[in-house]
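Table 4 source record.
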Amino acid sequence: GKGIMTKALELLQLEAKNLNIKKLFLRIDPNNHGSIRLAEKHGYELEGCLRKEFRLETGELADINYYGLFL
């Protein structure tokens, strides 16, 4: 890729620190391996999976992983 998401995540973390936010969450599809790698590369840790939490366009319910980062 072009590093757009990497830059966006870095800016998000910087601004969150400036606003004295203590923790950030990411919600990631368990099958989105690129986003999982990006999150883990930036220090986010898997905190859990919510089963059947997200409704797809098809109406099907899908799992979603929550990743957290303490700032």
